[in-house]
């Protein structure tokens, strides 16, 4: 049946299973949310605080830059500080150019990391490339660490690209420049994975990615790579951009691939707004997976867009208030109750669709539109339970949510 007509995503593409710290990556586990710090890793306090912030927001893996000796020496300190905070989030070390030297000079760094990320285009040039790549793989084997081989079109291995271009020139019908670039990306990733296995890294220690910043190119590259290997794939639109542009582009690309069962970890590479929180990329990743029905992280709030019938801002303020309330309370609820992340909420602005949408949610409220009776019926599991009036609707509705959670979801550790 056509997936667009079936109402569900395709089954996950079957992959090997890779353990990264306490997280399993591959088709036997859920699609995993990843993020990356933007602090100077050498500042171990600032980096620890940002890793903790990202982990508490729901990032299941956090990548940190390891670009110099000071950063490499800071990694064990960051791990120690996180453990003191009772945070066992897996750390991924991002290496470019000098990873072979940093890892060999700082064995404590290699030991403290849960995964290494290397880019074949930035490992080394000429005769040094294979030697330096082998050195990193050997360190991964020594410390039993998985590796993400992450190709990027901004730093593609030029020797691979030149070879593919030469081969393309000999074809009866040469491919266009975009197709050549996509073929080079996939070839670089797969050949690097094969080399890593030749150097002793197990196939169950390898994750691949091939990132570009064009939506259609990303979809084409991952479809091709998924068809040619069974390694887990990390998805992400690189340099996605700021604000709505970055969110929309990432969602457009990743949703198509996830709908086809492709992708085992995801990252949303948003440029933060000035003074904005780095956690936005985690929230967007979670919302993509949850709105597609692939995972549940936090209760979802349905709210109408408003129209001429809803000139009051009351429902907008209530929707925002409820969304913040749910996100703020979710860490507590998650520790106390089983299944609360599946709860659905509706905050509607008038009588047209309000009662109907409210009945579809676990808890819904239909606020009065302009000129309507100043009453807000509340529905719980499709049944109208009471009507709220007055100036304290927000607090009363949040109290109803609290009581519903306590009444409906079993406490963790309680007898069945």
Which features would summarize this protein structure in a list?
17% strand; 45% helix; globular; Sulfite Reductase Hemoprotein, domain 1; alpha/beta; 416 residues; eight-stranded parallel sheet; five-stranded mixed sheet; 14 helices; TIM Barrel
Summary?
This protein is an alpha/beta fold. The chain has 2 domains: 1-292, TIM Barrel; 300-408, Sulfite Reductase Hemoprotein, domain 1. The protein is 45% helix and 17% strand.
Count every helix, treating DSSP H or I runs of 4 or more residues as helices: 14
Q: How many runs of DSSP E, i.e. beta strands?
A: 17
Order of strands in the sheet with the most strands? 8-7-6-5-4-3-11-9
What is the structural class?
A: alpha/beta
CATH topology tier name of the largest domain: TIM Barrel
Give the amount of beta strand, in percent: 15-25%
Q: What integer value in Å does the Rg equal? A: 24 Å
How much is the average pLDDT? 95
Supply the CATH class of the largest domain: Alpha Beta
């Amino acid at each position: 049946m056509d997936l667009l007509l079936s109402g569900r995503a395709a089954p996950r593409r079957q992959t090997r299973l890779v353990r990264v710290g306490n997280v399993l990556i591959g088709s036997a586990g859920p699609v995993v949310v990843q993020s990356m710090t933007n602090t100077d890793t050498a500042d171990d306090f600032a980096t620890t605080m940002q890793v903790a912030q990202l982990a508490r927001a729901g990032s299941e893996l956090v990548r940190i830059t390891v670009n110099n000796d000071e950063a490499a020496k800071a990694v064990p300190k960051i791990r120690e500080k996180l453990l003191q905070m009772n945070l066992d989030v897996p750390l991924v070390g991002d290496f470019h150019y000098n990873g072979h030297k940093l890892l060999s000079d700082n064995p404590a760094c290699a030991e403290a990391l849960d995964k290494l990320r290397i880019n074949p285009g930035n490992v080394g040039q000429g005769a040094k490339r294979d030697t330096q790549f082998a050195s990193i793989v050997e360190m991964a084997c020594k410390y039993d660490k998985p590796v993400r081989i992450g190709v990027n079109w901004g730093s593609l291995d030029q020797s691979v690209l030149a070879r593919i271009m030469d081969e393309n020139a000999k074809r009866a019908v040469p491919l266009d420049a975009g197709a050549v670039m996509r073929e080079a990306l996939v070839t670089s990733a797969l050949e690097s994975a094969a080399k890593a296995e030749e150097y002793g890294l197990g196939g169950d220690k390898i994750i691949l990615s091939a990132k570009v910043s064009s939506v259609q190119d990303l979809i084409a590259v991952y479809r091709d790579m998924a068809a040619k290997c069974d390694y887990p794939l990390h998805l992400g639109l690189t340099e996605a951009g700021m604000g709505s542009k970055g969110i929309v582009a990432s969602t457009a690309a990743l949703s198509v691939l996830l709908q086809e069962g492709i992708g085992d970890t995801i990252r949303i590479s948003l440029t933060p707004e000035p003074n904005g929180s780095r956690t936005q990329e985690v929230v967007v990743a979670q919302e993509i997976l949850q709105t597609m029905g692939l995972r549940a992280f936090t209760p979802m709030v349905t709210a109408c867009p408003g129209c001429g019938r809803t000139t009051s801002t009351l429902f907008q303020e209530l929707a925002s208030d409820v969304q913040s309330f749910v996100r703020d309370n979710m860490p507590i609820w998650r520790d106390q109750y089983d299944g609360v992340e599946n709860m659905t909420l509706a905050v509607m602005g008038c009588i047209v669709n309000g009662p109907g949408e409210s009945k579809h949610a676990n808890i819904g409220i239909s606020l009065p539109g302009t000129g309507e009776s100043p009453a807000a019926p509340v529905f719980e599991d499709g049944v109208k339970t009471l009507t709220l009036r007055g100036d304290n609707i927000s607090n009363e509705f949040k109290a109803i949510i609290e009581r519903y959670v306590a009444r409906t979801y079993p406490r963790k550790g309680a007898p069945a």
